[in-house]
Amino acid sequence: MSKQTTAIDFGTGLAGEGALRSGFSKAAMKALRWKRGLGALVLMTASQGGWAACLHWGPNADAQPYHPPEWVTRTFNLALPSAVLINPDSPVGTELHRYEIPVGNGAEPNMMFCRTSGTTHAVVNSANMREVYVPGWNNVYSTTIKGIGLKLSFINELSDGQVGIREWPEVRVYTVNPTVIAGYRIPLGARSRFRVQLIKTEPQTGSGRFTTEPYAELQDQVGYVVLRASVTGTGIVVQTPTCFVDPGSKNVVVPFGRVPQNSFQGPKTTTAERDFSIKLNCRQGAGMSNMVYLRMDGISDPAGDPGVLRLTPNGTGTATGVGIQVLDAQRAPVRFGQDMQVGPSKEGSYIVPFKARYFQTGDKVTGGRPTARRPSRSSTSDTA
Question: Which residues pair with 36 in a beta bridge?
Answer without folding.
Answer: none
